[in-house]
Amino acid sequence: MPSTPARRSRPFRLAASIGLATLVLAGGATLASRLPAQAAEAAFIIPAPTLDAKGGTGTETAILAGGCFWGVQGVFQHVKGVSNAVSGYAGGTADTATYPIVSGGGSDHAEAVQITYDPKQVTYGEILQIYFSVAHDPTQLNRQGPDSGTQYRSAIFPTTPEQAKIAKAYIGQLDGTGVYGEKIVTKIEDGARFFPAEAYHQDFLFQNPTYPYIVINDQPKIDNLKQVFPQQFRAEPALVASAKS
Questions:
Q1: What one-character-per-residue DSSP string does 144-176 give?
Q2: 62 found inside a domain
Q3: Which part of the chain is the Peptide methionine sulphoxide reductase MsrA domain (predicted)?
Q4: Which of 126, 163, 179, 224 could pair with 158 in a Cys bridge, judged by C-beta atoms 3.0 to 4.6 Å apart?
């Protein structure tokens, strides 16, 4: 496994008393970075969507982008009814779907997560409610917390016309309530393909719970999910590694 590249666009700042944090990944790869200055937002309660999908049969997929895919993946791995959540890239072409290219801003991709779920247990509207409230901040344009660039944009990639309709209606509903105090910048991008990210990005939050970026930016999202959506929260995450075994 090649060494994991550092996230180039993150402005890491550090107090003099805190040193360089080095993470040793599975397989011996390392990732070194400094603690980011910004932490995750507090829990944010928003109304449920007035338009939602009816429970179907089998499984369905949703593709969402909201900043670093480590945290978004981690959130949905803890949602009941989700059987798999895969970190990856969406919005660009196959030849640019690699971490060095995407993280450097050299593609049309966004870091995204493909969510496989049982619509009888969790609806698409409920997934969007979690996405808009605890997974990311939909009012930040081309950035999330310490990460900046179009690769960290807020975007929904519908997999069906019904999903596109529900997402558009929900954005309009939330903007109409003024619940955020700012306009939602989330884009709905139709027809995008999803490309899974490299293996070392999968289950990253679960595999590296003490990594500084995770502690500051992503673990609070899991805590907020448990606080705001206790009925949908599952303690044991649905891991990519488990889905493959």
A1: ETTEESGGG-EEEE-SSHHHHHHHHHHHHHHHH
A2: yes
A3: 61-211
A4: 163
Q: Which of 12, 175, 146, 11 is nearest to 67 (CA)?
A: 146
Residue located via tokens 């995750």? 40
Q: Of the ranges 27-31, 45-49, 90-94, 159-163, which one carries the lowest mean pLDDT score?
A: 27-31
> Could you give the percent of the chain with pLDDT greater than 90?
78
Output the pLDDT for position 244: 73
Q: Is residue 12 part of a domain?
A: no
Which of the residues 62, 64, 68, 110 is marked catalytic?
Answer: 68
Secondary structure element (H or E) that encloses residue 86, with its range: strand 82-90
27, pLDDT greater than 70: no
CA 122 to CA 128: how far, in whole Å? 10
Within a domain: residue 3? Answer: no
CB neighbour list of residue 15: distance below 8 Å, 6 or more residues apart: none
Compute the distance between CA of residue 7 and CA of residue 197 in angstroms, rounded to an integer.
Answer: 14
Residue 127, SS3? helix
pLDDT of residue 42: 67
The domain spanning residue 150 has which CATH number?
Answer: 3.30.1060.10
Q: What is the domain extent for residue 126?
A: 21-244
Number of domains observed in the structure of the chain = 1
Tell me, what's the pLDDT at 56?
79
Of 119, 27, 137, which is closest to residue 71 (Cα–Cα)?
137
11 found inside a domain: no
Query: What are the pLDDT digits (tens) for 202-233?
Result: 999 999 999 999 999 999 999 999 999 999 99
Residues β-bridged to residue 22: 32
